[in-house]
Amino acid sequence: MHARADTAASWPEEIFSILQRFDVRQVPYVPDAGHSELIERVLGSPSMRGIALTTEEEGVALLAGAWAGGQRGVLLMQSSGVGNCINMLSLTQIFRFPFLTLVTMRGEWGEFNPWQVPMGSSTPAVFELSGIKVLRASQPEEVREVVEAGAAQAYNACTPTAVLLSQRLIGAKVFTK
Amino acid sequence: MSKANLLDRRAVVSQLLRDRKGAIAVGGLGASTYDIAAAGDHDRNLYLWGGMGGAVMIGLGLALAQPTLPVIVITGDGEMLMGMGSLATVGLQQPKNLSIIVLDNEAYGETGGQASHTGATADLVGVASACGIKDSKAISTMAEVEAFASSLQDVTAGPRFASAKIDATNLERVLSSRDGTYTVNRIRGSLGHTPI
Fold first, then answer.
1. What class is the B9-190 domain?
2. Which residues contact A74 (CB under 8 A, 6 or more apart)?
3. Do strands B114-115 and B107-108 pair parallel, antiparallel, or not at all (unpaired)?
4. Which residues of A touch B91 (CB under 8 A)?
5. pLDDT digits (tens, 9 = 90+) for A140-160
């Protein structure tokens, strides 16, 4: 149950087109409500392979292997999964591969569940300490240019990049009895 | 402590890679990487010196990107235990060209030989099989190693998983390159991919 902002163009659809344009082939993900529309598009795409993970760090290692084999990928996860990746993020520096992750944020902007707050709050710092550049989109109309910039610097300059998609953009999860 | 009829890890890995053809080999952190180095450096070897628990997933990414080439992940029991969920992910993806072999000495050799779960209760063959990797077996003879080495060339019948109980003696380290950017770009180059 997500209260979503009303927009003419759907931002997950815009992200999907950007990923297509950058020839992204492997899309590992841990299921996530904020990414659900994008995940559906990926799973229905003939050129992309959606790969469900048991934990997010698997996705970092998968993308390193994809790069070794000549394919680009992107890791979809939510902020609570970022902590699960920390040691594996070493691979982005060791292999100097074009790492891109799109992270839906929890634990901010009207969060109901306090358990999401600690990891959500430390997510940007965890990435920065791990040598990953952090970009953020908080409004639907800025998603396209922020994701485009993230993909460009990741794939063209091998600069590991995380794009945070704010909870303000996704809508705070509504818990009802 | 020492058990009879355990396989020699260097002999196992040497046999696995002897007639590898175009196969890409990923070595898990620790002694498995030294074993692959001992079998001879190769431009399609990916040596891991960290990222514990990630060997199978790196192999999966490679296997999906290069579906016509055999990809073999050679790793230890401790490294495999840390990434056990990746067996479920491989089971779901069913990459036909991916083979995984665990060199199981039932111990964390690199840190002083502390006992691992596989010496007592954990059965990695059972885990792999239960995760949907149908071709999962325990290997205990060199003839079986040889058969596994031939089977990994068949890129239409994977994924496959094997666990070989090996002698826990720590052998002299054979050090591979520790430069990940070099080794990964060497693999890419051998596949015809240019640098950025």
1. alpha beta
2. A19, A24, A27, A63, A100, A101, A102, A151
3. antiparallel
4. none
5. 999 999 999 999 999 999 999
What residue has token string 């999962």? B136
* Closest-CA distance of chain A to residue B3, Å: 34
Residue B172's nearest CA partner among B31, B12, B17 is B31
Residue with tokens 């111990």: B107
The ranges assigned to domains in chain B are 9-190
Report the distance separating Cα A72 and Cα A101, nearest Å: 12
Q: Which residue of A has its CA nearest to B188?
A: A68
> What tokens appear for B3 in the block?
């058990």
Q: Does the CB of B132 have a partner CB in chain A at under 8 Å?
A: no
**Angle between the N-to-C axes of helices B55-65 and A57-68, in degrees from 0 to 180, rounded to the nearest 10:** 40
Nearest Cα residue in chain B from A88:
B51
Tokens for B152, please give them: 């990994």
Query: Which residue bears the tokens 């997950």?
Result: A12
Interface membership of A127 toward B (CB under 8 Å): no
Q: Looking up tokens 């990797």, which residue turns up?
A: B133
Residue B142 contacts residue B7 (beta carbons within 8 Å): yes
For chain B of 196 residues, list the mean pLDDT of each consecutive stretch of 10: 78 98 96 96 97 98 98 98 98 98 96 95 98 98 98 98 94 94 98 92
Interface touch A68/B188, C-beta < 8 Å: yes
Alpha carbons B37 and B109: distance in angstroms, whole number: 17
Written in H, E and C, the secondary structure of A43-79 is HCCCCCEEEECCCCHHHHHHHHHHHHCCCEECEEEEH
| Alpha-carbon gap, residue B195 to B192, rounded angstroms | 10
| CB < 8 Å to B51, chain A | 61, 64, 87-88, 90-91, 94
H or E element that contains B76: strand B71-76
Could you give the CA distance from residue A30 to residue B65 in angstroms, rounded to a whole number? 20
Q: Does B80 touch chain A (CB under 8 A)?
A: no
> Which domains can be identified in chain A, with CATH numbers?
11-170 (3.40.50.970)
**CB B77 within 8 Å of CB B118:** yes
3-state class (DSSP) for residue A26: strand
pTM: 0.96
